[in-house]
Amino acid sequence: MAATDFLAQPKAELHVHLRGAIPPEFLGALLRKYPPQEALANAPGRHRRLFAGQANIRAALAGHYEENAFFRYDSFDGFLATYLFTSYFVRSIEDFRGLIAAVRRQFCRENIVYAEVTVSVIEYVNQGIPLEALLEALSEEPETPPRVRWIVDLVRNIGPEAAESLLDRILERRPRNLAAVTLGGAEHLFPPAPFERVFAKARGAGLRLTVHAGEALGPESVWDALRILKVDRIGHGVRAVEDPALVAHLAAQRIPLEVCPTSNIRTGIYRSYGEHPARRLFEAGVPLTVSTDDPTFFRVTLSRELSALTALGFSPDEIEGIAANGFRFAFAPPPATPQCGKATPAIRPC
Ligand code: ADE
Ligand code: ZN
Fold first, then answer.
1. What is the pLDDT of residues 86-123, one digit of tens each?
2. C-alpha distances out from residue 268 to 39, 246, 247, Å
3. Pocket lined around ligand 1, Cβ cut-off 6 Å
4. Which of 147, 146, 158 shows the shortest CA–CA distance to 121?
């Protein structure tokens, strides 16, 4: 099926990072507003070394930002470095509000009527924006679609103690539309288990739980996410396929995976769509949703991601079912499941 087949259809996306969906021209404007060498003036040495190791970032630092060259990396670490680099250019609450508005417009163009958007607030705090202002901006909700619910990324790289105190501060001024927490960042350096207390606290506060697991690490990370963090969904989770007992458990317990095939290929987890395990997971009965993760960084859209499922061996009816799962497994009071291709009374098309 072609991407155009899905464009007009109202869609839900459950795993998409706010900055990951930044329109490239919006990032270009920020890079002009804040000359990169100045924006990085107070960056810690470990970030400078990380950035110096990436050709695409070196070019941007030298003043050559060109989207086709910038959003290219040959590893998960290369992607994470690029992702972190862009956080240095969201430096005021106006930038942050502008980013939200630009991403909402992008969702509208794609007919994404419901999105659970992951936001790494600590990265903006690190650029000098007060947390309170960020949380206030997350509480604002325009009346028009898309309907957005927030998932705060506690960013595993800051460690469990800092993640817990960040969560405490967020809970003090809890944004109206906060649905869940997750952990993004370097799974291979910061596995899930040490975050047990943070996740227990979030659960106790009534938040839903997801975590990036089984992306950079194998099945043991997904087991820990389930048994120790007690998550409701798994971000990625695809490497669960390496353990048949885990696959059976995910299917039996109906734990949905937020599968992002193009992300996995662009970060080098798999070499091609043909190698991607989504089909095997599906056939074993694991509930699947499909998302873009960071559409700008992976040069993909949700319509194209759905279309790519054909190359993974899915039939048109199966793809429709996976698209509908975006509504079915939503964390927030789910909007009425739309009839394919039709607007619903609950959610108007953009
Ligand atoms: N932050 C943004 N995208 C991510 C991903 N795919 N994995 C981990 N952290 C991320
Ligand atoms: Zn992600």
1. 999 999 999 999 999 999 999 999 999 999 999 999 99
2. 29, 23, 22
3. 17, 20, 83, 184-185, 212, 215, 263, 293-294
4. 158
Q: Tell me, yes or no, if the pTM score tops 0.90.
A: yes
Confidence band for 348, pLDDT divided at 50, 70 and 90:
low
Q: Whose CA is nearest to atom 4 of ligand 1?
A: 184
Regarding whether 68 and 173 lie in a shared domain, the answer is no
| Count of domains for the chain | 2
Q: Which of 217, 205, 160 is nearest to 183 (CA)?
A: 160
Compute how many other C-beta atoms are within 10 angstroms of the C-beta atom of residue 126.
Answer: 18
How far is ligand 1, taken at its centre, from the CA of residue 33, in Å? 26
Q: Count of CB atoms within 10 A of residue 242's CB?
A: 14
- Cα-to-centroid distance, 117 and ligand 2 (Å): 10
Asked if residue 264 and residue 165 are part of one domain, the reply reads yes
CB atoms within 10 A of CB 218: 17
- Reported as a single tens digit per residue, the pLDDT across 236-275 is 999 999 999 999 999 999 999 999 999 999 999 999 999 9
Assess whether 146 and 285 both reside in one domain: yes
Asked if the model's pLDDT at residue 58 lies above 80, the reply is yes
Of 116, 215, 258, 305, the active-site residue reads 215
Nearest to 176 by CA among 139, 206, 132: 139
pLDDT on residue 347: 55
Q: Is residue 345 part of a domain?
A: no
Using DSSP bridges, classify how beta strands 147-153 and 178-182 pair: parallel, antiparallel or unpaired. parallel
Query: Please, what sign has the CA dihedral across residues 279, 326, 256, 300?
Result: positive
Residue 343 has pLDDT above 80, yes or no: no
Catalytic residue list contains 215? yes
